[in-house]
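TA notes, week 10

Several of you asked for a full example with nothing omitted. So below is the full record: C-alpha coordinates for the whole chain, then the designed sequence directly under it. When grading your own attempts, check the secondary structure regions first.
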Protein backbone atom coordinates (compact mmCIF):
# COMPACT_ATOMS: atom_id res chain seq x y z
CA UNK A 1 0.00 0.00 0.00
CA UNK A 2 2.82 2.40 0.90
CA UNK A 3 4.65 1.57 -2.34
CA UNK A 4 1.47 2.19 -4.31
CA UNK A 5 1.05 5.59 -2.70
CA UNK A 6 4.65 6.46 -3.50
CA UNK A 7 4.22 5.38 -7.11
CA UNK A 8 1.02 7.40 -7.57
CA UNK A 9 2.20 10.60 -5.88
CA UNK A 10 3.01 13.55 -8.14
CA UNK A 11 6.39 14.35 -6.62
CA UNK A 12 9.36 12.30 -5.44
CA UNK A 13 10.67 11.02 -2.13
CA UNK A 14 14.30 11.88 -1.35
CA UNK A 15 15.99 9.28 0.85
CA UNK A 16 18.76 11.21 2.56
CA UNK A 17 21.53 10.05 4.83
CA UNK A 18 19.60 8.27 7.54
CA UNK A 19 16.16 7.36 8.90
CA UNK A 20 17.37 7.89 12.47
CA UNK A 21 16.07 11.21 13.79
CA UNK A 22 19.23 12.11 15.68
CA UNK A 23 21.41 11.55 12.59
CA UNK A 24 19.00 13.60 10.50
CA UNK A 25 19.41 16.55 12.88
CA UNK A 26 23.20 16.09 12.84
CA UNK A 27 23.22 16.03 9.03
CA UNK A 28 21.14 19.22 8.94
CA UNK A 29 23.48 21.01 11.35
CA UNK A 30 26.63 19.92 9.48
CA UNK A 31 25.17 20.98 6.13
CA UNK A 32 24.02 24.28 7.64
CA UNK A 33 27.51 25.09 8.96
CA UNK A 34 29.12 24.14 5.63
CA UNK A 35 26.53 26.16 3.72
CA UNK A 36 27.03 29.30 5.83
CA UNK A 37 30.83 29.02 5.59
CA UNK A 38 30.60 28.58 1.82
CA UNK A 39 28.26 31.56 1.45
CA UNK A 40 30.40 33.84 3.62
CA UNK A 41 33.67 32.84 1.91
CA UNK A 42 32.35 33.30 -1.62
CA UNK A 43 30.49 36.51 -0.80
CA UNK A 44 33.67 38.01 0.66
CA UNK A 45 35.49 37.18 -2.60
CA UNK A 46 32.66 38.70 -4.68
CA UNK A 47 32.60 41.92 -2.65
CA UNK A 48 36.40 42.21 -2.44
CA UNK A 49 37.03 41.68 -6.16
CA UNK A 50 34.26 44.17 -6.97
CA UNK A 51 35.27 47.13 -4.78
CA UNK A 52 39.06 46.75 -4.61
CA UNK A 53 40.67 48.66 -7.47
CA UNK A 54 43.83 46.51 -7.19
CA UNK A 55 41.87 43.35 -8.00
CA UNK A 56 40.48 44.30 -11.40
CA UNK A 57 42.68 41.96 -13.46
CA UNK A 58 40.91 39.31 -15.60
CA UNK A 59 41.93 36.57 -13.15
CA UNK A 60 39.95 38.22 -10.34
CA UNK A 61 37.07 39.08 -12.68
CA UNK A 62 36.68 35.39 -13.53
CA UNK A 63 37.17 34.47 -9.86
CA UNK A 64 34.27 36.74 -8.91
CA UNK A 65 31.99 34.92 -11.34
CA UNK A 66 33.27 31.55 -10.13
CA UNK A 67 32.30 32.53 -6.58
CA UNK A 68 28.89 33.68 -7.80
CA UNK A 69 28.41 30.33 -9.56
CA UNK A 70 29.48 28.49 -6.40
CA UNK A 71 26.97 30.39 -4.26
CA UNK A 72 24.18 29.45 -6.67
CA UNK A 73 25.48 25.89 -7.14
CA UNK A 74 25.46 24.94 -3.46
CA UNK A 75 22.15 26.76 -2.91
CA UNK A 76 20.39 24.47 -5.39
CA UNK A 77 20.76 21.30 -3.30
CA UNK A 78 21.87 21.97 0.27
CA UNK A 79 19.02 24.18 1.63
CA UNK A 80 16.41 21.68 0.36
CA UNK A 81 18.32 18.85 2.03
CA UNK A 82 18.55 20.78 5.32
CA UNK A 83 14.81 21.48 5.26
CA UNK A 84 13.98 17.82 4.51
CA UNK A 85 16.15 16.62 7.41
CA UNK A 86 14.75 19.12 9.92
CA UNK A 87 11.14 18.47 8.87
CA UNK A 88 11.74 14.69 8.68
CA UNK A 89 10.07 14.79 5.29
CA UNK A 90 11.91 13.88 2.08
CA UNK A 91 9.09 14.86 -0.26
CA UNK A 92 9.93 17.15 -3.17
CA UNK A 93 7.29 18.23 -5.68
CA UNK A 94 7.56 17.46 -9.39
CA UNK A 95 8.04 21.14 -10.30
CA UNK A 96 10.71 21.57 -7.62
CA UNK A 97 12.57 18.54 -8.96
CA UNK A 98 12.37 19.85 -12.54
CA UNK A 99 13.71 23.24 -11.43
CA UNK A 100 16.47 21.63 -9.40
CA UNK A 101 17.64 19.49 -12.34
CA UNK A 102 17.59 22.48 -14.70
CA UNK A 103 19.51 24.86 -12.42
CA UNK A 104 21.96 22.16 -11.32
CA UNK A 105 22.93 21.14 -14.88
CA UNK A 106 22.93 24.80 -15.96
CA UNK A 107 25.39 25.79 -13.24
CA UNK A 108 27.54 22.64 -13.58
CA UNK A 109 28.09 23.33 -17.27
CA UNK A 110 28.77 27.03 -16.61
CA UNK A 111 31.36 26.12 -13.98
CA UNK A 112 33.21 23.75 -16.33
CA UNK A 113 33.36 26.35 -19.11
CA UNK A 114 34.43 29.09 -16.69
CA UNK A 115 37.24 26.90 -15.33
CA UNK A 116 38.32 26.32 -18.94
CA UNK A 117 38.45 30.07 -19.61
CA UNK A 118 40.37 30.59 -16.36
CA UNK A 119 43.00 28.06 -17.49
CA UNK A 120 43.37 29.98 -20.77
CA UNK A 121 43.77 33.20 -18.76
CA UNK A 122 46.64 31.64 -16.79
CA UNK A 123 48.14 30.33 -20.05
CA UNK A 124 48.08 33.83 -21.59
CA UNK A 125 49.45 35.47 -18.41
CA UNK A 126 52.41 33.09 -18.04
CA UNK A 127 53.26 32.19 -21.64
CA UNK A 128 52.57 35.60 -23.25
CA UNK A 129 53.05 38.19 -20.49
CA UNK A 130 53.92 41.02 -22.91
CA UNK A 131 50.72 40.50 -24.94
CA UNK A 132 48.51 39.57 -21.99
CA UNK A 133 46.57 42.86 -21.85
CA UNK A 134 45.75 42.60 -25.55
CA UNK A 135 44.79 38.90 -25.42
CA UNK A 136 42.66 39.30 -22.29
CA UNK A 137 41.09 42.62 -23.14
CA UNK A 138 38.33 43.62 -20.64
CA UNK A 139 35.66 43.63 -23.35
CA UNK A 140 36.70 40.11 -24.42
CA UNK A 141 36.49 38.94 -20.82
CA UNK A 142 33.01 40.39 -20.45
CA UNK A 143 31.80 38.69 -23.63
CA UNK A 144 33.38 35.42 -22.49
CA UNK A 145 31.49 35.56 -19.18
CA UNK A 146 28.22 36.42 -20.95
CA UNK A 147 28.73 33.44 -23.27
CA UNK A 148 29.44 31.19 -20.27
CA UNK A 149 26.25 32.17 -18.45
CA UNK A 150 24.15 31.83 -21.61
CA UNK A 151 25.67 28.51 -22.70
CA UNK A 152 24.68 26.92 -19.40
CA UNK A 153 21.03 27.18 -20.42
CA UNK A 154 21.70 24.79 -23.33
CA UNK A 155 22.84 22.08 -20.92
CA UNK A 156 19.97 22.80 -18.54
CA UNK A 157 17.29 22.64 -21.27
CA UNK A 158 18.71 19.48 -22.88
CA UNK A 159 19.03 17.53 -19.64
CA UNK A 160 15.73 18.70 -18.17
CA UNK A 161 13.64 18.05 -21.28
CA UNK A 162 15.23 14.62 -21.82
CA UNK A 163 14.98 13.57 -18.17
CA UNK A 164 11.36 14.53 -17.64
CA UNK A 165 10.19 13.07 -20.92
CA UNK A 166 10.64 9.74 -19.12
CA UNK A 167 7.57 7.86 -17.92
CA UNK A 168 8.15 7.25 -14.20
CA UNK A 169 6.37 4.00 -13.44
CA UNK A 170 8.36 2.69 -10.47
CA UNK A 171 8.17 3.85 -6.86
CA UNK A 172 9.30 7.48 -6.96
CA UNK A 173 12.10 7.04 -4.46
CA UNK A 174 15.42 8.81 -5.08
CA UNK A 175 18.34 7.51 -3.04
CA UNK A 176 20.00 10.90 -2.82
CA UNK A 177 19.61 14.19 -0.99
CA UNK A 178 18.65 15.97 -4.24
CA UNK A 179 17.05 15.15 -7.62
CA UNK A 180 19.95 13.28 -9.12
CA UNK A 181 19.60 12.43 -12.84
CA UNK A 182 21.13 8.91 -12.64
CA UNK A 183 18.69 8.09 -9.83
CA UNK A 184 15.76 9.44 -11.85
CA UNK A 185 16.69 7.17 -14.76
CA UNK A 186 16.13 4.15 -12.51
CA UNK A 187 12.45 5.01 -12.26
CA UNK A 188 11.82 4.35 -15.96
CA UNK A 189 10.28 1.08 -17.09
CA UNK A 190 10.98 1.53 -20.81
CA UNK A 191 13.76 2.64 -23.15
CA UNK A 192 12.76 6.31 -23.11
CA UNK A 193 15.73 7.01 -20.85
CA UNK A 194 17.95 6.56 -23.94
CA UNK A 195 17.37 10.23 -24.76
CA UNK A 196 19.04 11.19 -21.50
CA UNK A 197 21.97 8.90 -22.32
CA UNK A 198 22.26 10.57 -25.73
CA UNK A 199 22.35 14.03 -24.12
CA UNK A 200 24.87 12.78 -21.54
CA UNK A 201 27.14 11.41 -24.28
CA UNK A 202 26.98 14.68 -26.22
CA UNK A 203 27.69 16.83 -23.16
CA UNK A 204 30.45 14.43 -22.04
CA UNK A 205 32.20 14.87 -25.39
CA UNK A 206 32.03 18.66 -25.07
CA UNK A 207 33.29 18.53 -21.46
CA UNK A 208 36.09 16.19 -22.56
CA UNK A 209 37.11 18.75 -25.20
CA UNK A 210 37.14 21.44 -22.48
CA UNK A 211 39.30 19.21 -20.30
CA UNK A 212 41.73 18.56 -23.19
CA UNK A 213 42.00 22.34 -23.74
CA UNK A 214 42.78 22.76 -20.04
CA UNK A 215 45.43 20.02 -20.14
CA UNK A 216 47.07 21.55 -23.23
CA UNK A 217 47.08 24.97 -21.54
CA UNK A 218 48.82 23.55 -18.47
CA UNK A 219 51.36 21.62 -20.52
CA UNK A 220 52.43 24.94 -22.07
CA UNK A 221 52.26 26.68 -18.68
CA UNK A 222 54.45 24.13 -16.90
CA UNK A 223 56.98 24.02 -19.74
CA UNK A 224 57.24 27.82 -19.57
CA UNK A 225 57.45 27.88 -15.78
CA UNK A 226 60.25 25.29 -15.70
CA UNK A 227 62.32 27.55 -17.98
CA UNK A 228 62.02 30.51 -15.62
CA UNK A 229 65.42 31.50 -14.15
CA UNK A 230 63.91 32.79 -10.91
CA UNK A 231 63.00 30.18 -8.30
CA UNK A 232 60.61 32.67 -6.72
CA UNK A 233 58.86 33.16 -10.06
CA UNK A 234 58.49 29.40 -10.55
CA UNK A 235 57.12 29.00 -7.03
CA UNK A 236 54.59 31.81 -7.52
CA UNK A 237 53.43 30.42 -10.86
CA UNK A 238 53.02 26.89 -9.51
CA UNK A 239 51.15 28.14 -6.42
CA UNK A 240 48.68 29.90 -8.72
CA UNK A 241 48.20 27.16 -11.31
CA UNK A 242 48.33 23.91 -9.34
CA UNK A 243 45.28 24.71 -7.14
CA UNK A 244 43.30 25.62 -10.25
CA UNK A 245 44.29 22.34 -11.89
CA UNK A 246 43.26 20.49 -8.73
CA UNK A 247 39.82 22.14 -8.68
CA UNK A 248 39.20 21.36 -12.36
CA UNK A 249 40.34 17.72 -12.12
CA UNK A 250 38.44 17.07 -8.89
CA UNK A 251 35.17 18.63 -10.05
CA UNK A 252 35.11 16.97 -13.49
CA UNK A 253 36.32 13.54 -12.33
CA UNK A 254 33.83 13.30 -9.44
CA UNK A 255 30.93 14.45 -11.61
CA UNK A 256 31.87 12.06 -14.43
CA UNK A 257 32.23 9.16 -11.99
CA UNK A 258 28.80 9.83 -10.46
CA UNK A 259 27.12 9.94 -13.89
CA UNK A 260 28.95 6.97 -15.44
CA UNK A 261 28.87 4.48 -12.57
CA UNK A 262 25.90 2.09 -12.35
CA UNK A 263 23.22 3.29 -9.93
CA UNK A 264 22.36 1.07 -6.97
CA UNK A 265 18.84 -0.03 -6.03
CA UNK A 266 19.32 0.99 -2.40
CA UNK A 267 20.87 3.84 -0.50
CA UNK A 268 24.66 3.70 -0.50
CA UNK A 269 27.00 5.72 1.71
CA UNK A 270 29.56 5.63 -1.09
CA UNK A 271 27.08 7.16 -3.58
CA UNK A 272 26.18 9.90 -1.12
CA UNK A 273 29.84 10.70 -0.47
CA UNK A 274 30.57 10.93 -4.21
CA UNK A 275 27.64 13.33 -4.65
CA UNK A 276 28.97 15.50 -1.81
CA UNK A 277 32.39 15.56 -3.50
CA UNK A 278 31.03 17.26 -6.62
CA UNK A 279 28.07 19.24 -5.24
CA UNK A 280 29.23 20.55 -1.85
CA UNK A 281 33.01 20.29 -1.67
CA UNK A 282 34.10 22.40 -4.72
CA UNK A 283 32.07 25.52 -3.73
CA UNK A 284 33.43 25.14 -0.19
CA UNK A 285 37.07 24.70 -1.21
CA UNK A 286 37.23 27.41 -3.88
CA UNK A 287 37.32 30.35 -1.42
CA UNK A 288 40.14 28.60 0.46
CA UNK A 289 42.15 27.74 -2.64
CA UNK A 290 41.70 31.07 -4.44
CA UNK A 291 41.33 33.34 -1.44
CA UNK A 292 43.40 32.12 1.50
CA UNK A 293 46.32 30.97 -0.67
CA UNK A 294 46.43 34.18 -2.75
CA UNK A 295 48.49 36.91 -1.12
CA UNK A 296 46.71 39.78 -2.91
CA UNK A 297 43.32 38.35 -1.97
CA UNK A 298 44.37 37.87 1.66
CA UNK A 299 45.52 41.47 1.92
CA UNK A 300 42.38 42.83 0.24
CA UNK A 301 40.10 40.71 2.45
CA UNK A 302 41.97 41.80 5.56
CA UNK A 303 41.53 45.47 4.65
CA UNK A 304 37.90 44.88 3.79
CA UNK A 305 37.10 43.14 7.08
CA UNK A 306 39.08 45.67 9.13
CA UNK A 307 37.61 48.62 7.25
CA UNK A 308 41.02 50.01 6.39
CA UNK A 309 40.60 50.42 2.66
CA UNK A 310 37.02 50.56 1.46
CA UNK A 311 34.95 53.59 2.24
CA UNK A 312 31.24 53.56 2.96
CA UNK A 313 30.79 55.29 -0.36
CA UNK A 314 32.30 52.31 -2.27
CA UNK A 315 30.22 49.80 -0.35
CA UNK A 316 27.11 51.88 -1.04
CA UNK A 317 27.92 51.88 -4.77
CA UNK A 318 28.44 48.10 -4.67
CA UNK A 319 25.12 47.49 -2.94
CA UNK A 320 23.37 49.82 -5.36
Amino acid sequence: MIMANITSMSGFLLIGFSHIRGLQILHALVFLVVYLLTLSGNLIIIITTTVDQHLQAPMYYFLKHLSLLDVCFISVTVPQSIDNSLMNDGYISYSQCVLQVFIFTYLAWSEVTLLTVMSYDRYAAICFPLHYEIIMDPSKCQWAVIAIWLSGSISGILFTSATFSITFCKAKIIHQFFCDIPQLLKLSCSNDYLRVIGVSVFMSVVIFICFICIVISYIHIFSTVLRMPSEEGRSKAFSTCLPHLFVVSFFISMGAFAFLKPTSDSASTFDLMISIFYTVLPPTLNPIIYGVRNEAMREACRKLLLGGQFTKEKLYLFCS
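Residues 2-319 form a domain with the Rhopdopsin 7-helix transmembrane proteins fold (CATH 1.20.1070.10). Use that as a sanity check on your answer.
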